[in-house]
Amino acid sequence: MKIFRILIVAIVLLSVLPAEAQKKKAQTEKPKTEKPQPSAGDLLFENMLESTQRVFIIDSVVTDKSNFINEIPLPPECGTLTTYDQFFNTQGNDGNYVFVNEFGNKAYYSLNDGNGNSQLYTMDRLGEEWSKPARVEGITGGTSANYPFMMADGTTFYFAQKGENSVGGYDIFVTRYDSDTGEFLRPNNVGLPFNSKANDFFYMESELDSLGWFVTDRNQPEGKVCVYTFVPSKNRTNIDLAESSESQVRNYAAIQSIRDTWPSEKAHEAALNRVERMKARSASAMKNRNTGNAFVINDRVVYKSASEFRSEEARGLYNELLRSRQQAQRDARNLDALRNKYADGEEQLASDILSAERQQETLLLNIKKMEKQIRILENHTLSN
Questions:
Q1: pTM
Q2: Best label site of 169, 229, 254, 297, fewest CB within 10 Å?
Q3: Can you tell me the distance from the alpha carbon of 141 to that of 169, in angstroms, rounded to the nearest whole number?
C-alpha cells in the first residue's frame, strides 16, 4: 500500500513539473511585437528609387522658410514671386504665395480653404484691374496644393501638392495646360531627387539661362529650408543602377553631396559663371524697371513719359529710344543663351556669339547717341 502511495505522488509530480516549466517559460519570454507596415508614401518612395533622375546641382543655400523667395534669383522674364499678403495687401495668410507672369497679366496663387488645406486659383489682368479669381481646374488627387509656377511657354505648370501621390509632405508635380478644354492635364510627380519624404516645393526654371531652382526642408531644422540651384535636363537621364550600389542611389536621391552630381569641375565653374551673368542681367533689368521710362533732360528736369516733351523731334527720338532699349534687352538675353550653349559644348556657336556681340555693341552705341541728341533737342526747345 505504501509503495502504491509513493507511485501516485511520483505520477502527480511528473505531471506538475512540465506545467510549471511552461508557466516559467511563458513568464520569461518577451511578447512578440509586430513589424510596422510601410506607409503608402514609403512604398511610393521605394518604387521611385529605381528611376532616380540624374541632376546637375550647382549650389545650395539654407535660409529661413519665411524668407526663402528672396534667395531665388528668378529673372524678370520668368515672372515674379511674392507672398499672398504682399500681393493682396492683407495679413494672416502666411505660407501662401503668388506667381505673376512676365507680362503681368496672369497670376496664380494659393489660398487656405478653411479646412487646413490650400487650393490654387488664377486670375487675369484686364486693363488696370484683376478679374475675379477662379479655381485652377484639372489639378486633383491631393488634399492641399500650393507653390505655383508657370513656365515662360505659358503651358508647363509646376506646383506642390500633398496627397495620395506624394512621397512625404508636399511633393513637386508638373502638368500642362490644355487650351482646348481650358483645364490642366493630369499632374505627374517629378520624382526623385526633387522629391523626398519631407516637404519639397517651388520648382522653377529659366530656359534662357539653363538654370532652375527648387526648395526643400529635408534634413533641415524647424523653420529652415534649403534652396537648390540646378541645371535642367533637356532629356531625362536616370542613375545607372548597374553601376551604382543601393546606398549610392539612396544617397543621390537624398542629395547627400551636391559635388557628386557635378559632371566635372569645369562644368561646375561654367555653371557658376552662368549664374553670375544671369544675376547681373536681372539686376540691370530690375533697375530699368524701377526707373521706368524716366529720362534726364538736365540737372533740374526729368521726364517720365513722351507726352512731357516739348520738342516733337525729341519726342519721336525718345519713342525710338524706348524701342531700342527693349531690343537691347532682348539681344542681351539671346546672347546669354548662346553663351550658355557654348559653355555646354556647342563650340560651333563661337562665330554666332562674336556676331551677336558686335551687334550689341553697335546698338548700345546708337542708344548713347540718341540719348545725347534727345537732350540737345529738348534743352534747345526749353531755352527758347
A1: 0.74
A2: 254
A3: 14
